[in-house]
Amino acid sequence: MGGLSERAVRIGSGAGYSGDRIDPAVDLARRGELDYLVFECLGERTTASAQLARQADPDAGFDPLLEARMRAVLPWCAGKTRVITNMGAANPDAAAERVAAIAAELGNPELRVACVTGDDVLHLVSAEDAVSANAYLGADPVVAALRAGADVVITGRVADAALFLAPMRYEFGWAADDWDLLAAGTVVGHLLECAGQLTGGYFADPVSDPVPELARLGFPLAVVRADGSAELTKLPDTGGRLDRLTVTAQLLYEVDDPARYLTPDVTVDLTGVRVEEIAPDVVRLRGARGAAAPRELKALIGRRAGFLGEGEISYRGPGARARARLAGEVVLARLDGVHGLVLHEPRVDLIGCADDPAAEPPEVRLRVAARTASESDAALIGWEVETLYTNGPAGGGGARRSVRPVLELDPVFLPRAEVAGAVRMVGEPG
Amino acid sequence: MRSLRELAVVRTGDKGALVTVAVLARNPVDYPLLARALPASVVAARLAPVLTGPVRRHELPLLGALLFSCAGVRGGGVSSSTELDAHGKTYGHLLLDIELEER
What we know:
Chain A: It holds the Pfam family AtuA. Chain A: Residues 9-424 form the Acyclic terpene utilisation N-terminal domain. Chain A: InterPro entries: AtuA_N. Chain B: Residues 3-100 form the AtuA-like ferredoxin-fold domain. The complex is a heterodimer of chains A (430) and B (103). Chain A has 430 residues and is an alpha+beta fold. Chain A has eleven helices and 18 strands. Chain A has two domains: 4-294, no CATH class; 304-410, Alpha-Beta Plaits (2-Layer Sandwich), CATH 3.30.70. Chain A has a ten-stranded mixed beta sheet, sandwiched between helices. In chain A, strands 5, 14, 15, 16 and 17 form a five-stranded antiparallel beta sheet that branches. In chain A, strands 9-10-13 form a three-stranded antiparallel beta sheet, with helices on one face. Chain B is of the alpha+beta class and 103 residues long. Chain B has one domain (2-100). Helix content of chain B is 18%, strand content 32%. Chain B has helices at residues 4-7, 31-37, 40-47; strands at 2-3, 8-15, 18-25, 55-60, 65-71, 99-100. In chain B, the strands form two sheets. Chain B has a four-stranded antiparallel beta sheet with strand order 2-3-5-4. A two-stranded antiparallel ribbon of chain B has the order 1-6. In chain B, β2 and β3 (18-25) form a beta hairpin. Chain B is elongated and about 45 Å long. In chain B, 49% of the residues are buried. The model of chain B has no long low-confidence stretch (mean pLDDT 94). Classes of the chains: A alpha+beta (430), B alpha+beta (103). The interface between A and B is large, with 47 and 31 residues.
């Protein structure tokens, strides 16, 4: 037993989005015997919002849960598990400094924390109204950080699956153009990147598709070997299920063309993948094929697009639908007649009726929403929903209102030569 | 006739103004029925209230799955939509009461 070819690397998934649960990550750090724990926390909108936060405060712009997550898992990771995450968001430098400070507080000042930058390409974008522009970096700079000896790697916009591919490339010495191996590793990363969505989250239906102990849903881990073969599993004594259906559902999640799934590292063909159940909650994957990575890197440009104002109020009992509809008409009339508001893409939703013109549900929730140019205009929408309490149809209750800034995101494609990832180790000059 | 809910599970994903819906046969033996009786046109008709673009279908027999790539989600996708479900994450489940004709 135990030649180099037998060596397996264990990679756990600690988060599937910025606001994800933390306790399953702690469980993996504690009991998973992991070599790597990866937190994937950036979405399309998260990245641009983080840029706005940094513009308002130069020390902000990284994941709000960075500190809580690191305090929770670092004590269990020390000396055995390296951590990789894109929680640096719009400010990987500041995030890495914060992690190093937390490690020192926890009694581990020797922890080597690296930050990966270079995804911010706002300087390359000519659009005047752009407030953010972030390219999707591949695994290269994360591999470089691991080679430099980092225990924790904090990145900005590195592609989700690349965060997982990087430790495989580093551990197994996979070449940056060994397309089939990169495809195999990318598929494993794609499956892990949404954490609980592989283990029965976003899957359960209590009647048709029950998931055991959903409240205790565990996060997944992969056991990967140098030939790219991999098993996906979850820890014993956690909730959830990991089988052919949950894995296949996640394999195809957010995929446009399964024969050409584009990533910064490789173009993946999923059509030959086979998902095989080899034990309870253990699935083996094989058959991913790769082709050359796209010549250009995708970037998302963020632009300010005004504000979203929303208001909601409920009606119940016979005639609830008609009263909610009247309420919506009254709100729009007042927003126009009293305030002269210009509404963009206004929506009047009768929640509970869906798109069924005949539905007469026992409870209907009115929602009025629109975009406006200014924050104060957006606030008027929720206000005029709230005034329905005393100025609208009978029996309105439970009014709520909100306002938030809107960012419009548009993709652009940049030549690779113009985008360079960079690595800096905390405590060393950049 | 058998309902899609009886035969399959669905997984909805989103990317900008695109919504993807994977339809997975619970039992792989039912894949041929799905492939025969669930063309892109049926999915497009069911999602018509929430879609402005075309629906493309990909067949994945080794996975026992069909993947529908649905363009033009109402509201334009998560970044600037005024929709309550701006992603479109609830849309795939609208397919589950489609009745499939067995031969």
